[in-house]
Amino acid sequence: MGSFKRGVKKHFRMFAIFILLVSIANVICKAPDGYVINNAVGHGYKLMYIAQPWDRACEKCLEDGAKLAVPKSEEEFKFIQKIVRGMHYPSIIGSDYNLVAWLGINNLVNYTTWRNVDGENINDTGYHRWAGLNGQGYSDDPAEPHCAGIDGINNGLRDFWCQKRLPYICETQT
């Protein structure tokens, strides 16, 4: 009987350790399926392959319990850019331009100020670098680019036409 009790205790301990590890894993990884975790900032990101205009992309992220991604540091920008660099282009559906993905930045309300979907002026958030001359033209003409995206190569934000259908990146807290 002594060896039977030891065996039961051993299996019970192993089961308890297993339950503990599963519980820890659920606490560590709170992001929904398909999100890539950036532990440095506590966010998860998901590249959405069904292209949408900028405003619809915002809505779709909200429906997923997230928001359009907003880089607030150079490191966060580079993390998101790696996701874009890894896009599987043949999987993108309905896009007007496959090389750029929407971010949560625009100047739709005031064409002189680029704001993120959190309502912050991007000049105050820690990341506001533009690729080349992108983001420099200030026009209230709706035919001009008023939304921002990211590509896999350029070291900075890209201004783009909001009505164009592009893949997009959602961001959630982890």
Question: What structural class do helix, strand and pairing data support?
Answer: alpha+beta
The third-level CATH topology of the largest domain is: Mannose-Binding Protein A, Chain A
Rg from alpha-carbon coordinates:
21 Å
CATH class (first level) name of the largest domain: Alpha Beta
Indicate the proportion of strand residues.
Answer: 15-25%
Strand order of the largest sheet: 1-2-8-3
Q: What are the key terms here?
A:
single chain, 174 residues, alpha+beta, Mannose-Binding Protein A, Chain A, 2 domains, four-stranded antiparallel sheet, globular
Account of the 3D structure:
Pfam families: Lectin_C (PF00059). Residues 1-29 form the signal peptide. Keywords: Signal. This is Lectin5. InterPro entries: C-type_lectin-like, C-type_lectin-like/link_sf, C-type_lectin/snaclec_domain, CTDL_fold. The chain has 174 residues and is of the alpha+beta class. It has two domains: 1-30; 31-173, Mannose-Binding Protein A, subunit A (Mannose-Binding Protein A, Chain A, Roll). Helix content is 28%, strand content 23%. It has three helices and eight strands, in the order αββαβαβββββ. It has helices at residues 2-28, 54-63, 74-85; strands at 36-38, 43-52, 67-68, 100-106, 115-116, 147-151, 158-160, 166-173. It has a four-stranded antiparallel beta sheet with strand order 1-2-8-3, with helices on both faces. A hairpin with an 8-residue loop joins strand 4 and strand 5 (115-116). The longest helix is centred in the N-terminal third of the chain and has 27 residues, at 2-28. Residues 14-28 have low confidence and may be disordered.
